[in-house]
Amino acid sequence: MLKFDYAEYAASEEAVTAARPAAERTAKAIWEKGFSNIFLTAVGGSLSPMMAVGEIAKQVTDLPVYVEQAAELLARGHKMLGKNSVVITMSKSGDTKETVAIAKSCKERGIPVIALTKDPCSPLGAEADYYIPMRHTNGVEYEYILLYWLFFSLLYYRGDFPDYPVFARRLEELPKKLLAAKEAFEERADTIAKACHQEPYMLWVGGGELWGETYLFSMCILEEMQWKRTKSVTSAELFHGTLELVEEDTCVFLIKGAGACRALDERANRFLERYTRKLTVIDPLEYMAEEAAAFRWLLAPLYVSTLLVDRLAAHMEKYTGHDLDFRRYYRQFEY
Which residues of 252-274 are buried (b: 16+ CB within 10 A; e: fewer)? Predict the structure, then answer.
């Protein structure tokens, strides 16, 4: 596969699996201490897995779960954020300023902070009460796995997710299945990138538990890393404005979910295939035949992440000639 290091991916699998006990110990400690709500807060790409968790939480628990952009949470606060809250933060680098700042603010107020980050001595790690190591070097999906072990452990203790022991084992086995999905998608990723890399504008549509990945790929990959002009919109909101931008030569990507909101994706699909010749549909169910039906909607974000952020991004870089690591502004100076 293009720009893919099998040994590195396997090493990352080992590193993440080794972190599972830390995630579950943290969940147990938080449960024993007691809490009234959960705040998931980060910025940019790290916010995407949290968005998926937030959508899932609405359907599996009555526990209040809030997903917040860290800079906004820091600027305006939140009346439900207090000492009985649990704050979960995530930044692989550990130095994302907004995430470090909200963690520091919460710690000063006596609100317990959990940090998923690479180094416990990083600025974020130093502000956290609990640390879960993110030591993988390859595979965005590994961030989901760590977050899932933590979050679904908490739900298990509440009695909201009794299938956790089985689900947790599936997560441990998942990297090999995701590797197979990458390989199966590789040729199509090349075809898609070759066809669309010169498009002046791309519309990205998705929803439900897949909205975070739709947002991430359009903004963090195409806009930030490839400088491509995009618009992302949910499958539901497509019909309340953005549909008027669709013409026969509009490049549109539709990311289908595997849960309750898939019906909205299907509605969008019917409209888009009628009004544009440039529709690309990414359906994770095509790559999830081995997954238990009950878990498919929970795992769909990980499959989409592995297909898009890992495979399609590499092929876009190949055809655009624009290095994924090159930035004009991001982290280049103070702003």
Answer: bbbbbbbbebbebbeebbebbee
